[in-house]
Amino acid sequence: MAKCKWLLLGVVMSLASAANAAPQAASGIKAYEEKEFIADFTKFKIGDTAPAQYQTPEYTIKQYQLRNLPAPDAGTHWTYMGENYVLIGDADGKIYKAYNGDIFYHR
Predict the structure, then answer these.
(1) Does 3.10.450.160 match the CATH number of domain 25-105?
(2) Rounded to an integer, what distance in angstroms lies between the CA atom of residue 99 and that of residue 97?
(3) How far apart (Å, rounded) are the C-alpha atoms in residues 17 and 85?
(4) Taking the model in full, what pTM does it have?
(5) What is the pLDDT along the chain (107 residues), one digit of tens a residue?
(6) What is the model's pLDDT at position 18?
(7) Cβ of 72: how many Cβ atoms within 10 Å?
(8) Boundaries of every domain in the chain
(9) Burial (CB count within 10 angstroms: exposed 0-12, middle 13-18, buried 19+), residue 88
């Protein structure tokens, strides 16, 4: 009987520690947010400058609502880089935010 109690206590303790150690799942569009991504065989991160081609009107995403993206701030626009939606500055091309392309399917 004592072995059973110790075994049960061990199981309960291991489950409790595993629950505390598990990362919290992001909800909503936060789950799609990226801190770094790869496009054109180059690793980019927030704060980097997007290549000039992604700063052109051809790459600007105007219908961001259809892709479940938030409205861009003034002076920024959404573009598509390497399967990711990226918010960049109009003047300097600085990367402000990036979402995994799967956000398109977000419900």
Answers:
(1) yes
(2) 7
(3) 37
(4) 0.71
(5) 566 555 554 544 555 544 443 344 456 888 889 999 999 999 999 999 999 999 999 999 999 998 889 999 999 999 999 999 999 999 999 999 999 888 877 76
(6) 43
(7) 20
(8) 25-105
(9) buried
Beta strands in 6-71 (DSSP E): 36-39, 42-45, 60-61
Which residue is listed with tokens 């003047």? 91
Report whether 85 contacts 101 (CB < 8 A).
yes
CA distance 64 to 51: 20
Q: Which two tokens stand for residue 100?
A: 């995994």
Cα gap 62→79, rounded to integer Å: 9
Longest Cα–Cα distance of the chain, Å, equals 74
Contacts by 26-33 with C-beta closer than 8 Å and gap 24+?
28/106, 29/68, 29/70, 29/99, 29/103, 29/106, 32/99, 32/100, 32/102, 32/103, 32/106, 33/97, 33/98, 33/99, 33/100
Whole-angstrom distance, CA of residue 74 vs CA of residue 26: 27
